[in-house]
Write a structure and sequence with these properties.
It is a single chain. This protein has helices at about 10-30, 40-65, 70-75, 140-150, 205-215, 220-225, 235-240, and strands at about 80-90, 95-105, 115-125, 130-140, 155, 165, 180-185, 200-205. The chain is globular and about 80 Å long. Strands 5-8-3-2-1-4-7-6 form an eight-stranded mixed sheet, with helices on both faces. Helix 2 (about 40-65) crosses helix 5. The relative contact order is 0.18. With about 250 residues, it is of the alpha+beta class. It has one domain.
């Protein structure tokens, strides 16, 4: 029986292939999982904000039942800014912050895609501990909506824009909120009573917007006028469900 003996060049090539395969195997064993790109991490965080926003809308609406003020305003709102978790913490010097999403009412009464925002504020005074609450800003006028779409919106500093707040267990009609451009509904009455939002700054989270919609689509005004993000459908449906059967006043 004749045995075929590989030629020297063929044996050399086989050894090289074996070494390459071994190196690839070792790299896979010792290098660990592939690093998560910063943009991918931002996209995951942004997706979590959308999930939390849906839950926040449901909780705030439940907290304000059986009052029909929130539902009536929501049915007519030009847009909604949802801050799922607005944290207030500090001792003497307080810091408040929270990420959220802004959605604009479309001509057919539905809501467009969510643009990502962050709300921050600081204060000095007698305070201690930490609290948080879900908050919905109902934007009732066109100028209120445009103010939100600007690069930075500061509550109390934007001329001609009035903002009121309603804590759980209180009625909007018992406050000075009637006629305001924006009304904030919160699940925590004590934390956000009166002028607690005064001085808060609301700015777009362009890193989240870029991670979800692309680098060239980080501008909130372009995002809220589209309706292509399938993942946000649950949030959009939650905002229009169970509202009063009156036509939204959208020009």
């Amino acid at each position: 029986m004749t045995h075929l003996i590989p030629s020297a060049p063929l044996r050399k090539f086989a050894r090289r292939c074996a070494l390459v395969a071994l190196a690839a195997l070792c790299a896979g064993l010792f290098s660990g999982p592939a690093p998560v790109l910063a943009q991918d991490e931002d996209a995951m965080k942004a997706r979590h904000v959308i999930d939390e926003a849906k839950v926040a809308v449901e909780r705030v609406r439940a907290e304000h039942k059986p009052s029909d003020q929130l539902e009536s305003m929501l049915a007519k709102a030009r847009g909604v800014l949802v801050i799922p978790s607005y944290y207030k913490a500090g001792f003497i010097v307080g810091v408040s912050y929270g990420d959220g999403v802004l959605l604009k009412r479309q001509r057919d009464g539905t809501f467009g895609d969510p643009a990502f925002y962050r709300m921050t504020s600081g204060s000095i005074g007698l305070q201690a501990g930490m609290q948080s609450a879900e908050t919905m800003f109902l934007i009732l006028t066109d100028k209120g909506m445009q103010a939100m779409l600007d690069d930075e919106f500061k509550i109390g500093a934007n001329v001609g824009i009035s903002v009121g707040s309603v804590g759980a267990g209180t009625e909007a009609s018992t406050t000075t909120n009637i006629g305001n451009d924006i009304v904030a509904y919160s699940s925590n009455a004590g934390l956000f009573a009166g002028g607690a939002f005064e001085g808060s700054v609301i700015k777009p989270r362009k890193d989240f917007n870029a991670a979800v919609y692309g680098i060239d689509s980080a501008n909130p005004e372009g995002i809220v006028n589209r309706a292509q993000l399938f993942y946000a459908d649950g949030l959009k449906k939650t905002l229009v469900s169970q509202v009063y059967a009156q036509e939204p006043q959208v020009n």
